[in-house]
Every structure is written in C-alpha cells, then in structure tokens.
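We treat protein structure as text, and this decision shapes the records that our systems exchange. Such a record has a labelled line for the sequence and another for the backbone structure tokens. The record that follows is passed on verbatim for readers who wish to inspect the format:
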Amino acid sequence: HSADEIHHEWQEMAPGDDFRLHPKAALKVADVEPGRAFVLNGGVPMGDKPAPYAFTWAFVLQEQADRTTRLIVRERYRYERWWAPLMVEPVEVISFVMTEKMLRGIRDRAERSPAR
C-alpha cells in the first residue's frame, strides 16, 4: 500500500541503496536529484540467475509555465536474452494498470496537501 504521509526515514536515498517494493523485492537507486528526479534500476532474478533484461524506472518532475508541476514516469527495458520479451511484454500490461493507479493516488494526495 502507498503511504499517505511523509516518512522521514525514507527521504534520504542515494545511488546504490535498495528501494523496497515489497519485503522480498527491491530495486537499486540509480540516481537522485532532489526535487527533480528519482531513478531506479534492476530486474527480477530467475532463481540464482540474473534477470534476462535491464530495467529502469524514472520519476521526473517538470515545472510548467503556469506554476504547476508535471510528473513523468517512464519504464525502460533492455533485453539481455532473445526470449526476454516473451516474459516482459505481457507483464507490461499489468505494470501499465498498476502505474495508472499509482499516479491517480499521487494526484489525489497532492491535491489534498496544502500548496507550497
């Protein structure tokens, strides 16, 4: 579940840190630009073998001329094995649905918070 409040212990992330999606699943922090970008990378290993793809998940804030901020979320995959698309592409549909839900939740929480 998404947090409904700021957790100060989660605010200091640095490249190389684990970013937990679940108690048993984590991505690595690839880049942090406070107030601008947060980028994760990694993949789901297959048993004791590394993931057959490289994955990045970027969250980027862009200030707009009308003094609003746009959040851009992008996932990118690089296939390391010929068969990796057969595994990844069907899951991308599920990822799209989950990302839409996540973005709606972020929007709802942002609209409830006081303007800065």
